[in-house]
Amino acid sequence: MSKVPYASAIGSLMYAMVCTRPDIAHAVGVVSRFMSRPGKQHWEAVKWILRYLKGSLDTCLCFTGASLKLQGYVDADFAGDIDSRKSTTGFVFTLGGTAISWTSNLQKIVTLSTTEAEYVAATEAGKEMIWLHGFLDELICGSKNPADMLTKGVTIEKLKLCAASIGLLA
Length: 170
Known about the structure:
This is Retrovirus-related Pol polyprotein from transposon TNT 1-94. With 170 residues, the chain is of the alpha+beta class. It has 3 domains: 6-55; 70-139, no CATH class; 143-170, no CATH class. Helix content is 45%, strand content 14%. The protein contains 6 helices and 3 strands.
């Protein structure tokens, strides 16, 4: 196993997961737990994920003309990690039906019940929702979208006002 590029493969999978592939988040999270001493079964799992990616090259995140409604989904297992008995939190937030934030992580504490694991997961998802809501409030100003400058006609006065408000004009 020492000649197998396990760490390199995990790094590449994590990059794909973070940037564009929420569908592999849980699987990558599990195989990344064995970085220090991967076994043959772990390498087989990594190869399975790579084959899955190869077979789903057309899968992508696409923003459509749907309404900009922020929705979130959260779940947790209970004591799913057999070594530490920690639970896994997973959530995804969508904007207009497209995933914009997601995670699948071991919880930081060992919970004593399914209900407690669900509360921990809901708390983590709630913190992310609050951050996303604030970010989107700053990004999407009223009825005008900043992307309008790239796709629609904008007057010089409005463009100068926008540039001045972000410090591009003195």
